[in-house]
């Protein structure tokens, strides 16, 4: 197994997220329901962790879903015995896309590819995200604050990792590993790569790159594994560059072939938003997406991935009771999902509760 494979590096982490965190979550929710809490939200991260290593169609992934389903049945039966009615809404914040990773396909990673095209700089890569440690820390700290008995046990087990009453386990500080001579930093999030120049605080523009390093972007995007590169232009704002065409985000103008074909009807809309983030990278690089095989090429060494565009990763779901219909005109992006949940909460808390039976 690859030493960077998270399952190989942190086998206990997977046990913790898949089994222990699920139990802690269910236990906490049951306590909340018997205690009459108005609303509660819990994150079940085990499925995400397992599918990163096994893929969404694996037996391991399906097994986790079955076990989660059993827990939801348990919560439903507790809800039936609770002093007040409860509705269960289940949602995912993203799906996962699959396929061999970029490195498995082409024998080099994104850092090495960028280095080939930017020889003047030392390119440093951080090709592994630590999503799971963040999830573990949130749950552990939540339990510690809300449950005195388990809290004491966790504090003892965490030992030196407790600082100011908060547990911080497994977090590797990016800043500590940063080489001072690195001129370019490459970060990976699934099949999305983020490229930052370190020499200045403002974003480099398409015009500057073309002036200083003619052909760099075109050459980068010609690699078989790359779908498109998004860069800020001083004349056009966000520009998405594909192998045979460009998409100008400020006026939705397409030159040649549309590089966003196959990436879904909302691709340009999402990219316009990401391109305006104050901490936007100099380049967003997305792998190809093959519509026929439904595959992407992750820049992290993960079988299942999310973070970029293409495939199931941008297709989350909400499973909601019939008595709580969707009222948002369209559910696209986190803001509209948030509004929908606030609407349901206001409806339920402001008016007599509809009976959950027949959901
Ligand atoms: Zn994930």
Structure, described:
- The protein folds into two domains: 152 residues, no CATH class; 164 residues, no CATH class.
- The strands form four sheets. It has an eight-stranded mixed beta sheet with strand order 2-5-6-11-7-8-9-10, sandwiched between helices. It has a two-stranded antiparallel sheet with strand order 1-14.
- The protein is 40% helix and 16% strand.
- By secondary structure, it is an alpha+beta fold.
- The chain has 13 helices and 14 strands.
- The N terminus is likely disordered.
- The longest helix has 25 residues.
- The structure holds zinc ion.
- The site of zinc ion has 4 residues, from helix 3.
- Zinc ion binds next to helix 3.
Q: Distance between termini? A: 45 Å
The percent range for helix content is: 25-40%
Percent of sequence in beta strands: 15-25%
Q: What compounds are bound to the protein?
A: zinc ion
Order of helices and strands: HHHHEHHEHHEEHEEHHEEEEHEEEEH
What is the rounded Rg? 23 Å
Q: How would the global form be characterised?
A: globular
Q: What is the count of distinct domains?
A: 2
Spatial strand order of the main sheet: 2-5-6-11-7-8-9-10
Mean pLDDT across the residues is 86
Q: What is the helix tally?
A: 13
Q: Give me the secondary-structure category.
A: alpha+beta
Q: Unreliable runs, pLDDT <50, ≥5 residues?
A: 1-9
Main sheet overview: 8 strands, mixed
- Count of extended strands: 14
């Amino acid at each position: 197994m690859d030493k960077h494979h998270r399952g190989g590096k942190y086998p206990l982490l997977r046990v913790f997220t898949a089994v222990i965190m699920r139990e802690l979550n269910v236990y906490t929710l049951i306590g909340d329901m018997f205690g009459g809490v108005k609303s509660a939200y819990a994150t079940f991260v085990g499925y995400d962790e397992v599918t990163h290593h096994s893929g969404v169609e694996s037996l391991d992934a399906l097994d986790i879903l079955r076990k989660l389903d059993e827990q939801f049945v348990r919560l439903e039966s507790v809800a039936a015995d609770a002093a007040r009615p409860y509705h269960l809404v289940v949602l995912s914040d993203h799906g996962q896309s699959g396929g061999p990773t970029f490195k498995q396909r082409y024998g080099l990673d994104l850092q090495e590819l960028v280095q080939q095209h930017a020889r003047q700089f030392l390119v440093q890569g951080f090709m592994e995200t630590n999503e799971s440690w963040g999830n573990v820390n949130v749950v552990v700290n939540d339990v510690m604050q809300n449950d005195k008995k388990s809290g004491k046990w966790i504090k003892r087990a965490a030992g030196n990792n407790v600082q100011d009453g908060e547990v911080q386990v497994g977090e590797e500080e990016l800043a500590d590993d940063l080489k001072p001579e690195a001129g370019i930093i490459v970060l990976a999030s699934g099949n999305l790569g983020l490229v930052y120049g370190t020499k200045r605080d403002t974003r480099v523009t398409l015009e500057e790159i073309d002036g200083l390093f003619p052909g760099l972007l075109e050459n980068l995007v010609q690699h078989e594994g790359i779908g498109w590169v998004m860069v800020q232009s001083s004349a056009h704002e966000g520009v998405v560059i594909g192998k045979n065409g460009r998409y100008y985000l400020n006026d939705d103008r397409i030159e040649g072939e549309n590089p966003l074909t196959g990436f879904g009807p909302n691709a340009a809309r999402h990219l316009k938003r990401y391109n305006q983030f104050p901490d936007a990278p100099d380049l967003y690089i997305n792998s190809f997406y093959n519509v026929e095989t439904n595959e992407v090429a992750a820049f992290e060494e993960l079988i299942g991935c999310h973070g970029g565009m293409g495939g199931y990763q941008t297709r989350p779901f909400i499973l909601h009771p019939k008595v709580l219909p969707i009222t948002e005109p369209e559910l696209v992006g986190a803001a509209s999902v948030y509004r929908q949940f606030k609407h349901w909460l206001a409806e339920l808390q402001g008016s007599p509760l509809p009976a959950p039976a027949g959901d």
